[in-house]
Write a structure and sequence with these properties.
By secondary structure, this protein is an all-alpha fold. The chain is built from four helices and no strands. The longest helix is centred in the last third of the chain and has 65 residues, at about 65-129.
Length: about 130
């Protein structure tokens, strides 16, 4: 797959932006269709100007206060999703740390074993000649 990059934006920033967009879309998928659309309207996630509570209320034929309640409920769900995702990521990192420590210990122990065997072979060859 060929990708044409934008030279003005570093590749790592482009990747980070894409990852953040993916995370946001996964988080929004945790919401009901109405909650998701209200958050999109409210924060301008559809590349439009953010809408006021009153403008969104007009779209859904609901009061400003009801839209605010739905928005707060949706934001609570998004926070819960974010916290849960962070918790699992933290557990993953802790497990990765343990695995890397085991691998490191294995490599160190085997390195010493390798050196020991190498010297044994070297000295045994020295005595033969």
């Amino acid at each position: 797959m060929d990708m044409v990059g934008d030279d003005s934006i570093p590749v790592d920033d482009q990747i980070l932006k894409k990852d953040m967009e993916d995370f946001l879309m996964k988080a929004l998928d945790q919401l009901s269709d109405r909650e998701k659309q209200i958050i999109i309207y409210r924060y301008g996630l559809d590349n439009e100007k953010p809408k006021t509570l009153e403008e969104i209320g007009t779209i859904y034929n609901l009061s400003r206060e009801r839209i605010r309640q739905i928005e707060n409920q949706a934001l609570g769900k998004l926070k819960q999703y974010s916290d849960c995702t962070f918790f699992f990521f933290w557990k993953f990192l802790k497990n990765l740390q343990k695995i890397l420590l085991i691998i490191w210990n294995f490599l160190i122990n085997n390195f010493y074993l390798f050196l020991f065997l190498k010297f044994q072979i070297f000295f045994s060859l020295q005595h033969k000649f």
